[in-house]
Structure formats: C-alpha cells, structure tokens
Amino acid sequence: MSLPSLKESIQAYGLDAKKSLGQHFLLDPGICARIVTLGGDLTGRSVVEIGPGPGGLTRALLDSPASRVDAVEIDERAWPLLEELAGHYPDRLHIIRQDALKLDAASLAPAPRQIIANLPYNVATPLLVGWLRQAHSWERLSLMFQLEVAERICAEPDTSAYGRLAVLAQWCASCSVALRIPPGAFSPPPKVHSAVAVLIPHAEQPAPELFRAMERVTAAAFGQRRKMLRSSLKSIGGEALLDAAGIEPTRRAETLSVAEFGRLAELHLARSR
Ligand code: SAM
C-alpha cells in the first residue's frame, strides 16, 4: 500500500501543531531533502532524528542511503502515525517513544551515527549541550535552530553573539551555519527565522571532567560578561588562574579565543583536584 501524503497523515491522525512542544512542521519535501544532504554520504550510517512529528524529514531520511533511522518523539499523538510509516520501512525506521532530554545514547544504533533534526526550539540548547558532552558519539550533527541560536553557536570572539554556547560548541566541533530557512517554510510559521547548523566533532574530545570544568569557567565568565575576568572568575581562581594561563586579568570574556578558554578549563581542573 502506498504512503498517504503528509497532509493526509496529519489530518487522519489529528496532529494539530502544539505550541508547548515547539511544533512547526516542514511539509515541503524539497526542503527536507536539502537538510538531509547536509549529512553528506549517509551510506551505512545510522541517523537519529529528534522530534519526527508527522514525519516529513523522516521520509527524506528514509529516501537516503542511511541504514537505519532512530526517530525520538515525545508526542504520543504522533506515535501511531510514525508506526504506520515504520511499517513501510521494516527494520530501517525505529520509533523511540521518549523525551529526547532523557535519551541514553547507548540505546541507539551503533556508530557511525549522526543526528539530523528540526529541533523543538524550547529545548534545543539543553539538547545540544547534552550531545556536546558526548561529542565522540557523533560523526556529525545537522540541526535546525532558530537563526539567532545557530548564529550564537558559530559566533566569533569580539561579537555580541559570542558566548558560552559558541565556546562549548567550537571547543568540541567545527561549526557552520549551512542553510537558512524562512518562517513560511513551516506549518504553522514560527515568529523567528531558522537555520541549520552543522557541527562536525573534532577527532580529540575533552574528558567528561574537563568538559565540566569548561562549563564552570564559561558560566562564570559569561555570567558577568561586562566585567573584567579578574572579577567574573573570582569564585574559581580569579587573577591567579588568569596569570597561570597567561591571560591579562583586565580582559573581558568575549575577547577570549576558544583556545584561551581551553587553557583556563585545564588549569581550573588541575587546581580543583
Ligand atoms: N521533524 C518534524 C518536521 O520537521 O516537520 C517536526 C519538527 S517540530 C519543530 C519538533 C518536534 O519535536 C515535534 O514533533 C515535537 O513533538 C517534538 N518534541 C518536542 N519536545 C520533545 C522532546 N523533549 N523529546 C522528543 N521530541 C520532542
């Protein structure tokens, strides 16, 4: 039996978009296909999709040579629709009925593994930080965010967008804004513009305790971004830490490169042992 169109599926299963779940659906197969190409050659790869909703992007992923798609959806209204889709792709599409914030990567298909997703914007940043904590688990992440968040992920020092998210993301991965998408491409249209950021994790990743040290350093530094670092970093070593890292204590957080933050995190960890 052939697949119903996306619109027919949405109607048949009564999947009206819920704001509380960040639901803005992509119904244009051409846009979904372009997002999938950002994953590169998916031959033999498994792909995790967060929030498949009515399954537009899922269908495009299933049209790719990916060997397996794990689709993680919290909205129980979408589960029967997704199970119907899975019936058309036995053994390739797995529906994971779960909150992505509580997802255990060990339960997913083995590496090489990517994430390709049109994320629910209300939880997009905590999801990303969680994946960065285990960046070695992912070959590539192609993620739709609201444009402002995608720009913050890829921001350069000395700009107002540069902050904790840029440092954490760029410390773990090469990051770029790959595709901008206007509100009208979604149903219903969000109030903001959107963009897909592509993150390719570096070969070397920080150990979990070093990542936690970086989270503390960046939280302190950007928590008071207008202040000089000798003052904003007072609770974690202040001037002594900055001296050891060879960083002028009168500088402000947004002037530091990712590598300088890396030095601070290593020294902070060494001193807290
Ligand atoms: N992928 C679909 C598309 O592109 O049309 C839907 C994208 S919509 C922006 C976000 C999806 O994430 C919705 O299906 C929503 O139900 C789901 N979602 C929201 N919060 C979630 C969570 N914590 N865990 C898993 N899925 C979630």
UniProtKB/TrEMBL annotation:
Enzyme nomenclature, EC number: 2.1.1.182
Catalytic activity: adenosine(1518)/adenosine(1519) in 16S rRNA + 4 S-adenosyl-L-methionine = N(6)-dimethyladenosine(1518)/N(6)-dimethyladenosine(1519) in 16S rRNA + 4 S-adenosyl-L-homocysteine + 4 H(+)
Assigned GO CC terms: cytosol
Family annotation (SMART domains): rADc
Binding residues for S-adenosyl-L-methionine: H24, L26, G51, E73, D99, N118
Example of a GO MF term: 16S rRNA (adenine(1518)-N(6)/adenine(1519)-N(6))-dimethyltransferase activity
Subcellular location field: Cytoplasm
Pfam families: RrnaAD
Class of the enzyme per the UniProt entry, highest EC level: transferase
Domain Ribosomal RNA adenine methylase transferase N-terminal: 31-203
UniProt entry keywords in alphabetical sequence: Cytoplasm, Methyltransferase, RNA-binding, rRNA processing, S-adenosyl-L-methionine, Transferase
InterPro entries the record matches: KsgA/Erm, rRNA_Ade_diMease-like_C, rRNA_Ade_Mease_Trfase_CS, rRNA_Ade_methylase_Trfase_N, rRNA_adenine_dimethylase, SAM-dependent_MTases_sf
Role of this protein: Specifically dimethylates two adjacent adenosines (A1518 and A1519) in the loop of a conserved hairpin near the 3'-end of 16S rRNA in the 30S particle. May play a critical role in biogenesis of 30S subunits.
Family: Belongs to the class I-like SAM-binding methyltransferase superfamily. rRNA adenine N(6)-methyltransferase family. RsmA subfamily.
NCBIfam families found in the cross-reference section: ksgA (TIGR00755)
Protein name from the UniProt record: Ribosomal RNA small subunit methyltransferase A
Lineage: Bacteria, Pseudomonadati, Pseudomonadota, Alphaproteobacteria, Acetobacterales
Gene name for this UniProt entry: rsmA
